Protein 1
Amino acid sequence: MAILEKPELTIFLTSDIHLKNKEDETKLAQILHHISEYEDAVFICSGDLTEAGVESQFSSFYKVLEENCSLPRENILLSLGNHDVRGPSRADWSNNAKDTPSWYENARKSYLTRNYMYSGATTNVYFSNTIKGYKFIVLNTEKSLKDSCYITDNQLEWLEKELQSVPEGKVSFIINHQPLRDTHWRSNDLEGFGVQDGKVKRILLKYPNVFFVSGHVHNGFGSAEIIDKPYGTMVDVPSLFHTANGINTDGVAYKMLLYKNRAEFKAVNLLTKEEYDNYHLEVHFPLLSELYNKKQQLVDKQKDDVMFLDFCQDVFSPQYDQQQFEITPMFSSEKQEKNLFGSDYRIKVEEMKKVGVK
Ligand SMILES: [Fe+2]
Ligand SMILES: [Fe+2]
C-alpha cells in the first residue's frame, strides 16, 4: 500500500471577511472550527477583517477567533485591509498618499491590542512568524488610505532584513492586503497597491523566492490566479464572503498543502467542504522567479540558460489590460473573457522549470 505523503503545513488562505453582523460571526466560527481539526494548520486572512474598522467589529472578530480557533496562536496571521483602517465616515476618506487621515490611530490601536497575542508585536503593525522553518511576513499599511496601502521606509528596511535572513533555497510568504500593480485582474483599480509599489518590487527582485499573498480585489475562482513574476509568485486569494465573480458562494478559499518540493493549492469551500477540482493548482519548487534570478546571475550562460531566460520573459510578459477594468464596477457578475494565467499556463511553467533546474 502506498504511504500517503503528509504535507509539512496545511495553510488556509482566506481574505476579505468584512465582518459586520451576527450572520458573519456564525459563518466565521463554523470555518474556524473546521480548520482547527487540521494538524499543523496555518490560518491566513489577508485583510479586510472587518467591514468598517470600528472598535465593535474588531472586538467581535477577535472574540470569534479566540473562542473558535484552537490552532497555535503563532499560526494565525492577519493583516489589515483598507476597510479596517479607513474608518466609517466617507467624508474622511482619501487616496492621496500625502494625506494622513486621522482614523488610522483608532484602527492601529484596535489591531495591535488584540493581534499582539498572535504576532507578539506591540508597537509596529508589521511582523513575521516562523512556522516549521517557513517565514511568514505580514506587511501592513501605516496610513488609513481609502483603498491603497502605505508602506513606510522603516517597514521597507525591515522587510529587506527579514528576507535576507531566510535560508538559501527556502520559500517564504509575504501577506499584504493589496496586490502589487500589474499582476492580478483589477490589481490597478483605485490606486492599486499604492506609491511604494516599485520600492517593494525592487526589494523582492533581490529575494524573489516568495509567495506574495493578497486579496482586496475580490476575484473569485475563475478570475483569481497564481501568477509568476520576476519578483515572486503572486497569489490572489478569493474573498471568503464577498467574492465578486466566478464561484461566488460564501466560504471560498485556498487550502494550500505545503510539501518540501511543492505547494498544492486546493480550491475549496470552507463552509460546505466542497472542492472545486477545476481550479486546483500545483506550484513546484524552486519558484520560477528564484530560478530566473539564479540563471540571470550566471556569468557564463550556456545555450540552455539563454533559452530558459527567454521562456521566463514570455511567462512574465502577459498583462491584463488593467485600464479597461478601472471603469468596471467592483461587484458585477461579469468575468473577464479569458484567464491569462490558467491551468495551461501553469503546466507550461512547471514543464519549463524542469528544464531550468537541470
Ligand atoms: Fe475587501
Ligand atoms: Fe480591500
Note: The chain has a mean pLDDT of 92.
Protein 2
Amino acid sequence: MKTLVVVYSLTGNSRKVGETLAGILGCDVVEIKENVKRKGIIWFFKSGYEALTKKIVPIEDINIDFSQFDRVLIVCPIWAGNLPSPVRSFLNKYLDKIKDIGFVFTLTSDEKVKVEKVFEKDFKRKAFDSISICAAKVRCNIFEDEIKKFADKIRV
Ligand SMILES: Cc1cc2nc3c(=O)[nH]c(=O)nc-3n(C[C@H](O)[C@H](O)[C@H](O)COP(=O)(O)O)c2cc1C
C-alpha cells in the first residue's frame, strides 16, 4: 500500500505529527506552502475568516503525481472549526487525482471536533479514516502512542 503524507502547518505542530507518522509508515512527506507569512493578530483573524468562509487562496504547485499513491494522509490544524484555507485550496486543486484520503488534525481543544465531516460534505468524498490530536500533547511530545495506534489501524 503506497501512502503519502501531506502536511500543512503554521506553527509546527502538524509538521511534527506528520513527520512522525511518515516515519512510522515509512513513507514520504510533502508540504503545502504559500507565498504569504501568516503572522500576527490580523493574520490570525484573517485565517479564521478564510477558513469559515471556505476561501480558496494561492498555494505553491506540488509537482507530484498523486494518482500513483493508494492513499494520501493530510496532516493539518483546525482553523475556526474548519479546514485551513491552504488545505481547502490543496483539495480543490488535487483531490480528483487522489484515490483515497484520510486526515490527522491537530487542534487546541481536547474535544473530538469532526472536521472530516466538513470535508465530506463540501467535497462529496468519504475519508477512509481520521484522528484529532491535541496541540498541548504535540508540544509536550506525548502524542506518539496515539499516532502509532492510528498507524497500526490504517496499516494494511
Ligand atoms: C486561525 C486559527 C484558528 C484556529 N481555530 C481553532 C479551532 O477552531 N479549534 C481548535 O481547537 N484550535 C484552533 N486553532 C489552534 C490550532 O488548530 C492548533 O494550535 C494547531 O495545533 C496548530 O497547528 P500547526 O502548528 O501545525 O499550525 C486555531 C489556530 C489558528 C491559527
Note: The chain has six helices and five strands.
